[in-house]
Amino acid sequence: MEAEYKTFLxxxxxxxxxxxxxxxxxxxxxxxxFRFSFALIFFFIGRKILxxxxxxxxxxxxxxxxxxxxxxxLSSIIDTxxxxxxxxxxLLIIGFNHTxxxxxxxxxxxxxxxxLKDNLANFVGGLIILIFxxxxxxxxxxxNTSYGIVSSIDVFSTTIMTFSGDLVTIPNGxxxxxxxxxxxxxxxxxxxxxxxxxxxxxxxxxxxxxxDMIKKNKNILNNPAPFLNIDKYxxxxxxxxxxxxxxxxxxxxxxxxxxxEVKTTLDSVNITIPYPxxxxxxxxxxx
Length: 287
Known about the structure:
alpha+beta, SH3 type barrels, Alpha-Beta Plaits, 5-stranded antiparallel beta sheet
């Protein structure tokens, strides 16, 4: 048994220390090193050339004429696609058999697809957003609790710039299953401002001066007509709702103008805007 074991070890040592074997191994390592180096150079140079080409393409009039929402989505797909193509070409240069490589990539694709099914849902969600034009870049939207301007629509997510300057990234799969309010979808938009007056104030006079204020503002539309009504009786005030329509493009300018003019208008007729107050009655206990 010991003799057989020694014979087996001798054969192994002979096989792997044989001059012909070492020569073949050295040749293969040298060839692999050169192929790997060439593939690496090919990948990075090819990536740089394609990136420069795409940058020039993105500056063409044709690309600029594409819808701004679709541009970010398309550029994301192109960038990812070029990396995948260069990676496959590099593996073929190294020496991978194309049949085996296709089978391997197919297996990897299935595994990655199962592992990244949420990302596939996000990709489909991005297509739905672009096809049905739910919103576009620069639209003012509210998605769940995120409210702001759409900054970009990428392959897997939508980015919103909030009015406080925060960037909020929402997966496209979540977007298509959520309630979306697009304030930029229509050319006009209704505005509602609540104005509080004291219980001692003349309601009819308040209505009159507020109506006059609205009529003087050129951004407020006559159709639909402006509307004022009592919205609520609070503990310390009467709330008047001002409901007017304006063009979307001047919505916020009009809003801030009215908010500034309300106080001046009410002050001009001595109508006060109350602040919360409480009357306390102290009852003395009889001795």
